[in-house]
Amino acid sequence: MSLRNTEYIYGIVVYTGVETKIQMNSQKSIYKQSRVILTTGKQILLIFLMQICLACVASSVGTTWMIENL
């Protein structure tokens, strides 16, 4: 904003909250991820769940074998 044909001006700030022009125009940035990152995250979760399942199966087979053979 600029004033023309004026030597001086008096001003007062009435309100400087979140409804000011600058705050209303500033938007929060959206975090975007690539498909590679999303696919990698899903694959890591799948591998983790498979390891848990395999550990449960191996521990039950090992416990059964130890009870029968010892």
Descriptive report:
There is one protein chain. The mean pLDDT is 87. The protein contains 2 helices and no strands. By secondary structure, it is an all-alpha fold. The longest helix has 35 residues, at 35-69. It has a domain at 33-69.
Helical run tally: 2
Mean pLDDT: 87
Q: Main β-sheet: number of strands, strand sense, barrel status?
A: none
Give helix % range: 55-70%
Features:
2 helices, 57% helix, single chain, mainly alpha, 70 residues
Give a topology summary.
Layout: H1 21-25, H2 35-69
Summarize this entry quickly.
With 70 residues, the protein is mainly alpha-helical. The chain is built from two helices and no strands.
